[in-house]
Every structure is written in C-alpha cells, then in structure tokens.
Amino acid sequence: MMHNISGISAAGPRAVTVGTFDGVHLGHRKVVEYLSEQSKPKGLLPTVITFEPHPLAVVAPERAPLLLETPEEREKCLRKTGVEVIVIEFNESLRKLTVRQWFERLATEYNTKLLIAGYDNTFGSDGISMSISEYEEIGKEYGIEVMEAPVVKGVSSTNIRRALAEGDTVAAARMLGRRFSISGIVTHGRELGRSLGFPTANIKTDASLLLPAPGVYAADAILSDGSRYRAVVNIGTAPTISQGLPLTTEAHLTGFSGNLYDSELRLEFLRRLRDEKKFGDISELKAGIANDITDAQNI
Description:
Blueprint: E1 14-18, H1 26-42, E2 45-52, H2 56-59, H3 71-79, E3 84-89, H4 92-95, H5 99-109, E4 112-117, H6 132-141, E5 145-148, H7 157-165, H8 169-176, E6 181-187, H9 192-196, E7 201-205, E8 215-223, E9 228-236, E10 248-253, E11 264-274, H10 282-297
Helix pairs in contact: 7-8
C-alpha cells in the first residue's frame, strides 16, 4: 500500500494538501477542489499526501477510530478527483517531526510550493496549537505559500462515525455526498435465514472498518459483476433463534437466486428500518422479515 516516493520531487513543483481523508466526505472534497483550483493558474501539480495507518493508531492507539473505508477505497476516491495521491507510512519517526522538519520535508522531498491547509490541520509535534498565520510565516522560510481551504460546516469524519453509531445512514450519506457502503466476502454462516425461507449472504468485513449500529437496514447489494439487488441487511445476533453468538452482517437479496459464496459483495445503505428485536416465536419472526422486505422494496 505504501508508495515508493524516492526522487518524487522530479515530478515538478506541487501544490499539496495533507491529511487522513477517512471517508473522503464533502469536507475533504471541498479541500481537494480548492487544491485543484489554486494549482492550475500557478502551474503546480495538485497532490494529496495521506497516511497509512491512521495517525491515532500510532499517537494514541486507544483513541484510534474504526475507519469509514479501506485505504484502497480512500485512494480510489481521491484519484477520481484528478489529483495525484501519495500514501506514506505514519510511524514513530514521522510522529516526532517538528513543524519546521515537516515543512523542510514538504519542500525537499515533495517539491512543494503551495500548501493547502484544512481547518483542523496540524503539522509537527510542536505545531498542534499553531494558527494558519503562524504556518504561513514558517512556510515562507521554505519557499512554501500556505493557504487555508474553505470549510463545509458540520461535516467531519467524526460526525459521520457518530451518525453511523446511531444507525443514521441517511445523515452519514448527506455528509459523505454518497451512500455509506461496506464490502466483504460472502462466507458460510449459520444458514438461519435459509431455514426460515429467507436465504441470506453472510458478509465478512474488514475488522478495521466501522459498521452501522446493530439493526435492520434497507440497502442495495452490488455483486462482483455489477448487478444490483434491493436488500434487507441485519447487523446483529439474531436473538429470536440464537443466544450469545457474535455480531454478524447478513443480507437477504430480493429476487436473487444463486451462489455467492467466496465472492465480494458491496452494500450501499439506504436507511434504517428498525431495531433488531427478539420476536415471540418463529412465525412472528418470519412475518417481521416479510414486512422488512416490503418496506425495503418500497423505498
């Protein structure tokens, strides 16, 4: 995943923005859009520098968040905007850089002439409390112009995580500028849905990724061949017919019949239908699932 960046300055002078960009949400897109706008008249190459792993995984592992997307998905989203993307390893050595060492590195290793700073950007172990104007003054020492990007109020990776923790995939989608989605490989599960007449795909997702709160959701399921099916997704433990089992993500694809085992499946969440609940008996459970399918199809 890490990119070889030796000799990268030969690519020409750059306009750079630096950040984690988890989720590549509307706020991130505004920064990247501003980066591109400012790069063109100056003849600079618009470049996003981002990190793997998440900086908090190194700085404060106990506070490191679950991610909104994989590093590969993040890079793909960023590249779609037309910028160059450089992924560097965030490690102890990088964490210890001072603000001036950061600017020196931007100037010498990345040939940076313009730095676009987001509202919450910090550079260097000693630059946490610095203002944009202070960064501007330091930038002058290294031939780097510093500009602050516009802000999309209320949009942040933290707010998106908070919405998902509440099961509000609609609010998450508004901030992302697209539906929240997860991908995973279909594995052999408990086959509880099949025994009820509603076969489900059991999806194994990356453990580093955030899932919406437990509950029942309407979603679109996208198969590896690109075909789409409306789906009812249960994130939970199936309390009506099991006890003490781990959390799973299962999707019933309406109108689909076939074998999905070992294939990749992506789920684009539409909205939450209800909490997961323990029904009185199997008949009530079946009726509840049938209602969920109807509700999902009517969206």
